[in-house]
Structures
1.
Amino acid sequence: MVPADGNDEPSELLYGLHAVREALRAGVRPIQRLLVLRQDRQFGDVVQRAKEKRIPVQLGPAAAFDRLVPGGKHQGVIAFVAAKAYVALDEILESARARNEPPFLLLLDGVEDPHNLGAVLRTAEAAGVHGICIPERRAVGLTSVVAKVSAGAIDHMPVSRASNLTRCIEDLKKAGIWVYGVEPSAEKIYTETDLTGPLAIVVGGEGEGIRPGVRKECDELLRIPMMGKVESLNVSAAVSVVLFEAVRQRNRKRMAVPTEP
């Protein structure tokens, strides 16, 4: 269990032992994570049910509960409800197969700003990306702010949530998907790379970029050439640049007329 990071909004909170217990039992509302005051017997069944459903459980101080739910009616348990349910990675890959298209995925390593995630969702949907994968921890989830900024794209873009992004990349590589990380220090420029096959693009968060362990698992690293004084683009801008280069290449390949031998 880890401390609460405080990224979620009060309007998306479900609190109180009975309310949270019933929401977990019904399984209708997409719960992002659970914040509990203690790990004793009082919270045992709620914590156990959350873990069975692979919902992250976090331990937080009393001050965090009082800040999120003024008035003390939280009873030491708060559920953070997402704006949309997540899907399994296999469902995203199956969707690509059903459309008879090479998989086209986006992986976000630690994007914490909901405005950035919303903008990325909108761009990815416009680019025809089959799905997005985000980490369970240290990253913003599908909140109402994300939904609003996405301008409706959240309803059309499947999003998977991985407990371990490195393992997610390993699974994609086993499925025959080439994984490219977008990294300012990379030697190869993104336009010099064939982006027409089964593809997953990895982009890092606002501060640290792609973490070393995730970067190491990428098949290759690409960079966007920067002509000014800043070293990198905002994450949503970087995603736009690389995804639509892939769109350009894929459209050109699809529209190419075979020549006679």
2.
Amino acid sequence: MATAPIEPPRRLVSALGGDPDGPAGAWLEALPAMVRQRLEAWELTPERVHEPGGRSSLLVYVRQADGTPAALKFPAPGRAPAHEGAALAQWDGWGAARLLRADADSGALLLERLQGAVSLRSLPEAKALLEAAGTVRRLWVSPADGHPFASLAGRAEEAVDELRALGAATPAVGPLLDESLELRRALPADAPEDVLLHGAFRQGKVLAGERTPWLAVGPSPVVGERAYDLAWLVLDRFEDLAAGSGAASAARRRVAKLADSLDVDRDRLRSWTLYRAVDSGVREMTTTGGDVQRGELLLEFATWL
């Protein structure tokens, strides 16, 4: 079995390496040893590191002892890997990549291997939205008894405080920020349901598979209403909507179409989408490495709703 050190991709190092003495820096330093330990413990043969990779995890393509392909994932600190694994375990391959093994100490997850270079974003927009809606519908199940997932309601004040602090640096947001803060408090309080959500669902999180055409990956699981997951999908490829004529009308039509196709209340989806657009826009404009132009466009999208 290969024992050569596996180095994290540059994108991951850039995203996490700002504080070498902090938890993320320590995790990056220990990562090659953690990978080697999991390879040996689970009898895995590494093939290659997924490049350019993500900003919050390392993914290594491997072969299991019987030759079956798999993917070994190490979520970075703060990503609650046990919760990701718990969600994947509950779905058990229904609409999402199947969890094969998990290690609580390192947070490592051994996953069914999908085609990492082929996501729903490779499809025309209308087809991609149709497939995305069919995929996310499968994930909306009742959380198991004793589940570890936080709820949207339980995170309300934390989310409000965080957005307010970020918004203080972007005074031009004005009334949009106030409305978003009020929505983030009010929406979970009268939610019509509590189901297990992907939590970060978008077309790029749905990859081509072998046993079924499309499967979700990379959940940030949370319990709440379906409209929260759909709001992420409304914002997918929003730049394409903005570039076309009648962008505001097109945005509202997308809300209506997705809501109706999945039996979600239009007004609640509009409200969650507005909140998500403002939250994401403010983060782009205030976070180091963010895209100010993208942030401004997200805020403009919010006004269309």
3.
Amino acid sequence: MIDIENITKQFPGKVAVRDLTLQVNDGKIFGFLGPNGAGKSTTIKMMTGILPIDQGRITINGSDMAKQPLETKQKIGYVPDRSDVFLRLKGIEYLNYIADVYHVPTEIRKEKINDLTRSFGIQDALNDHILTYSHGMRQKIVVCGVLLHDPEVWILDEPLTGLDPKSSFTLKEMMREHAKKGKTVFFSTHVLEVVEQLCDEVAIINNGQLEFLGDMAEMKRQFKDDENLEKVFLELTQHE
């Protein structure tokens, strides 16, 4: 479970996230939506310990990110919104490095690397430097690295960006399977159709504040039944 309690993050001249409270239960795929600059990535960076929290508290499966950062980070798998990392490493070097960080045993990592890279169609590029990869391939290698230690909670920032249709389908199926196991998937996206197809619950954030929180049934109760998520999203985020 992800428990976000009254978090605030301020930068010079701007409050990026203001008094945000969310709870994401186990076994759920949770969609996090908002226009550019709404505070999505800032929230995710606080959830993953990249940015300190100015006020409030974030706990993940009972561990406090501020007080128990290493313990908490062991429980999460994080796909950032940018995949241009460790470009001078070969694909296999990067995956082994991530496996070392998370103490994945040798035999388990070999099997996981084989299965994951075949699922995303990059098994033949593992001896190439990531610098030579296309954007989509870089995204795939990052996703493979994130899933190597089988984290309980997936935190994915625009994870489908750059993926080809087959790989996008594969990742969405993995997200569904992860939730079916009683674990948690939290992801931000601009692809509203994916949210309608995939998510159990949705939060819409705008100007750092929560505009909507609930499932699709609740959304339909609050808005006209014939309105799709795009119309709701535009209505909620059109004001400044």
4.
Amino acid sequence: MISSRFRLLVAALAAAVSAGAAQAQNTTPVLFSFSTVGDSRQDPITYDQASVGATLSGQDAIWLQNTKAFARILRTIQAQKSTMLFFNGDMINGYGWNALGYTSDFVANKISGPTTPASTADVVNSDLLKAYQQYAFWRGLVAPVMETGTYVFPVPGNHETVCKFCPANSDKQKVAKVENEQAYAANMGDLILDNSRFSTLLGTLPQSFNPGPAAGSSPDGLTTDQSKLSYSFDYKGFHFVVINTDPVGAETSAPTNWLAADLAAAKARGAKKLFVFGHKPAYNYNYQKTGVASSSSLDATAATTVKRDAFWTVIEQYGATYFSGHEHVYNISQPKGGAYQVIVGSGGSPFDDKASVPGANPLTDRSYAWATVRVHQDGGVDILGYGFDEHFGPTQLYQQIYLP
């Protein structure tokens, strides 16, 4: 007869197993590791005074970057020996219209143009030149990482592709512009993919590279060239996908049909794990104790919720892990109980969780945070959440999740 003590032991073991792949640890050798974070751009108007001070530094006021926070994250990622860094969008403040003669006024919430520049000041103050300056500063910050063993993969965000004050349908609203997509491709395209640099840093060439669809060939009906905005590749039997979640004409949506075909092909090749990187999260993280939901995700409206559901069905179907930014906060969740969504839009932009309204998780809601992922030889994966608080205290390990 089975003793009651034995039954209790079996029940406890079963509970531990069901509760916690999140607690297990893989002891097989680490094959490689990568890190991911997003949203390092600074805001010229609503910067977080509790974190960066009463005024922006002269440097950050010009280049609109949280240099102190992002530079520290980069240094720590270097120390963690990550061989890849996926930056999940909003590396620049941008938000203008990168066509000739347009100038945005973020204080007055308006845009002027098109005009023919009549002076040097007109050129310097134009949205186009400011975007290129901000890209250049960001590229300068990540250059040392590239030179010391970490390949940087860019992901487009809404601040890269979207114009904040552009007229659309006779109204002023946020719309993606082809000129903004082109400016992103011009400033980031050499990273997608530089085979020589890739092989030098990672020891082998990328396999099965799949550029995003060219103009007119998108299975999702997109009308602009996405070949430098969405892309994928294999590395050591693992599959990596970058998607543009704010393409022209389909803002706040994912290229779901293209993604489904890409993941199906990767599975057919025998990919051990599938990692997808986009700017906007599929599901918002409600960081406020008040229960007020954020609209910072792919379910911001009824129309986008339908598209979000289709996107997440693909993520779940193929057992992918989705990494995102956009919400300026750290959070890891299983929205439907299966696939993980990892939000790391905490690379330096003003915290969504304001100091005056403490969030549901005070330890992490106002932290500069990122995820470092260790990929093991047997295909198992550790996702480790790291960060430091708004006062730039010591770096801490916030969370560890194991995917068998």
